[in-house]
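Quick one, tokens below:
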């Protein structure tokens, strides 16, 4: 294990520059919020295997994001973004962006790295996306985001009778602007408060900005309706904490990830952008995790 860790960079980077030049992949990104900015600012960490060709922002930007090279085109009109060919598109803009752009991108044969996984809880939209992927040859790919253990969860739930619970514990202010704020006076919360308990499908519907991981756990495990979700507002913590508890005939899985909240968006974790970069790097590595 130590040898593999020490040589990971060697396997991913320099020795085969001529081969890499032949398989250069182009990338577009939807959104320029906290996640997208992290990806752009750290783009150089994935070497020369990828070119960041385009960004789609909701409105024209007054300045170029840090780390954004001169060759990257920045668009504010979706039709212009769609007209710019890329192999991969990273979505970091929310459910509405998935619905409006996802089908067209997949019909064009692109790989769509989907971060707003909760959008797939809408059966009609999920069907549209899957049909578009089948027709155009595109793929829907789900980065691990702010959680871990999806590989074990996929294996554990291959057999029937598995049970899965996902608990998301965030600081109280991370739930501001959500339906929780209409049900509770969040300013008076002094002890951990369970603001939701139910299915992953309902969690994704009620908390579209906070429960994307709940949907991801459901897709890797026992499905949107069978996965139990618990969402907690906790005044005693400053980080986002996600826990998977799963059990079945093959064993049990207990995974907890405690990550810093993104500086510009407390509803998401800072590590999400790094998970996108890691997924891209893994796709071109000589030794890959699957």
């Amino acid at each position: 294990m130590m040898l593999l860790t020490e040589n990971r960079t060697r396997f991913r980077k320099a020795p085969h520059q001529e081969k890499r030049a032949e398989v250069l992949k182009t990338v577009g990104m939807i959104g320029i919020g906290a996640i997208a900015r992290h990806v752009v600012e750290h783009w150089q960490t994935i070497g020369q295997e990828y070119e960041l060709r385009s960004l789609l922002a909701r409105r024209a930007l007054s300045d170029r994001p840090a780390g954004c090279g001169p060759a990257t085109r920045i668009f504010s009109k979706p039709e212009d973004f769609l007209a710019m060919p890329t192999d991969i598109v990273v979505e970091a803009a929310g459910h509405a962006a998935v619905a409006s752009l996802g089908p067209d991108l997949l019909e064009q044969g692109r790989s769509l790295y989907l971060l707003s996984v909760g959008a797939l809880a809408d059966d009609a939209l999920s069907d549209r996306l899957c049909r578009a992927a089948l027709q155009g040859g595109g793929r829907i790919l789900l980065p691990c985001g702010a959680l871990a253990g999806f590989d074990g969860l996929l294996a554990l739930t291959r057999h029937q009778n598995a049970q899965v619970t996902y608990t998301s514990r965030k600081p109280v202010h991370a739930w501001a602007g959500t339906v929780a704020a209409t049900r509770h006076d969040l300013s008076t919360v002094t002890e951990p408060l369970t603001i939701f308990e139910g299915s992953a499908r309902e969690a994704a519907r009620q908390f579209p900005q906070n429960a994307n991981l709940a949907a991801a756990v459901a897709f890797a495990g026992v499905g949107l309706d069978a996965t139990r979700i618990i969402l907690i507002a906790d005044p005693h913590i400053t980080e986002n904490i996600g826990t998977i508890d799963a059990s079945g005939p093959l064993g049990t899985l207990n995974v907890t990830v405690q990550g810093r909240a993104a500086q510009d968006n407390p509803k998401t974790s800072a590590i999400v952008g790094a998970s996108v970069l890691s997924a891209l790097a893994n796709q071109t590595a000589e030794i890959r995790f699957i």
